[in-house]
Design a protein that fits this description.
Elements (H helix, E strand, L loop, with lengths): L16 H10 L12 H14 L3 H10 L10 H18 L10 H11 L4 H8 L3 H15 L4 H10 L6
Helix pairs in contact: 2-3, 4-8, 5-7, 5-8, 6-7
Amino acid sequence: MKAEYDFSKAKRAKDVPHLAKLQATASKGKTRVTIYLDDSILESFRLRAEAEGRGYQTLINEALKQVPANSNPVTEDVVRRIIREELHPACMTNAIEPVQQLGPREREVLRLLAEGGTLPEIAKRLDIAPRTVEIHRRNIMQKLGLHDIASLTKYAVRNELTYI
């Protein structure tokens, strides 16, 4: 290693006054959080924000603040209930071709994907190659006009291939 790249004797940020000050102020007040939201949820926040003349990120922050800090943790039953409530209106708006378009193996792969199985897990369970599962997944998405696993899950629940 070149001597110029050796930082073993370098000062720590806490020992450099201006960096220590930055660390002290950065830890107070705000924390950066990354969340993933469905496009439909994000769009609803954007539309509401536009109507109210506010920023959509502000509305998301306010929604997060409404959850009390001492509230009960989210249980599996609560998540299932919320998903069912969200799926019902979402499924009504999607005009998707019938499940009979899929072959028996494709329906099985769809069910396992909707239940959260990974390609290697599904391949092992069905005693087929992971690449074959991937091809089934691609064919299912193409036949149904869907583009992500969340949409496949909604479709599977709606068509009673699985239950959440």
